[in-house]
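SEQUENCE AND FOLD
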Amino acid sequence: MPYRAHLHPQIGDVVARHLLEHFGNAAAIFSASRRELERIPAVGPSGPAPSGSSAISTA
């Protein structure tokens, strides 16, 4: 099931799945702090980043 359309255009299906599994819903994801987001293995500093783009800013 693709999740991307439900979150953000720069968030791929795999990362979206990890975020939703961890936080439970989109509202919780978008209210999470940068530190909370970086603790998710697929999202944090060692997580995948699309080629040619940078990480999504939470500032």
Summary: The CA atoms of residues 8 and 24 lie 16 Å apart.
